[in-house]
Amino acid sequence: EYSCEYGSLKFYALCGVGGVLSCGLTHTAVVPLDLVKCRMQVDPQKYKSIFNGFSVTVKEDGVRGLAKGWAPTFIGYSMQGLCKFGFYEVFKILYGNMLGEENAYLWRTSLYLAASASAEFFADIALAPMEAAKVRIQTQPGYANTLREAVPKMFGEEGIWAFYKGVAPLWMR
């Protein structure tokens, strides 16, 4: 017995929920490490190594400072996981149906690659706004401490483009 029919809306929803849990939770769990990595990239003179970066951050912002950017990380990577896992299955079935059963089997590796790339295209569009806010919060001291502060400030300064400047690099990654 299966929990749902393959290719049904419930199937896609469960795949999406799996993506939310696997991407949103894991990326949020490593926010302190990501925060220090981003700061090392932006200011290598101040954040000389991982351990030094943790030490400087705790000295300046306290232990809670290591959680800066957790909300956009959780929301952004949850959205990315939803799209990545859900759309992968959508595209896999769509492309498989376009090829026909025999060709879908013969070309399955290429089919999976195309489905994955298609899903990632949309997943990165979903991630980009929150990733942009997260990077501002983590790397620009005094810019904003929370998502609620960062989003209106970014929109006011640069409009909607502020949230999508990083989408092309995400696609390239």
Automatic annotation (TrEMBL):
Annotated membrane topology is:
Multi-pass membrane protein
Any one GO MF term held by the record is: phosphate transmembrane transporter activity
Q: Name one Pfam family in it.
A: Mito_carr
State its location(s): Mitochondrion inner membrane
| Keyword list, A-Z | Membrane, Mitochondrion, Mitochondrion inner membrane, Repeat, Transmembrane, Transmembrane helix, Transport
Which Gene3D superfamilies is this protein grouped with? Mitochondrial carrier domain (1.50.40.10)
**Catalyzed reaction equations:** phosphate(in) + H(+)(in) = phosphate(out) + H(+)(out)
SUPFAM superfamilies found in the cross-reference section: Mitochondrial carrier
Q: Does the keyword Nucleotide-binding apply?
A: no
Q: What ranges cover the Solcar repeats?
A: 10-94, 107-173
GO biological process entries: mitochondrial phosphate ion transmembrane transport
Residues annotated as transmembrane: none
Q: What is its main location?
A: mitochondrion
What are the GO cellular component annotations?
A: mitochondrial inner membrane
Q: Does the keyword Transmembrane helix apply?
A: yes
Concerning its family, UniProt says: Belongs to the mitochondrial carrier (TC 2.A.29) family.
How does this polypeptide assemble, per the annotation?
Answer: Interacts with PPIF; the interaction is impaired by CsA.
Sum up the protein's function in the record's words.
Answer: Inorganic ion transporter that transports phosphate or copper ions across the mitochondrial inner membrane into the matrix compartment. Mediates proton-coupled symport of phosphate ions necessary for mitochondrial oxidative phosphorylation of ADP to ATP. Transports copper ions probably in the form of anionic copper(I) complexes to maintain mitochondrial matrix copper pool and to supply copper for cytochrome C oxidase complex assembly. May also play a role in regulation of the mitochondrial permeability transition pore (mPTP).
Its name, as the record gives it, is: Solute carrier family 25 member 3
Instruction: Look up and give the organism this protein is from.
Output: Caloenas nicobarica (Nicobar pigeon)
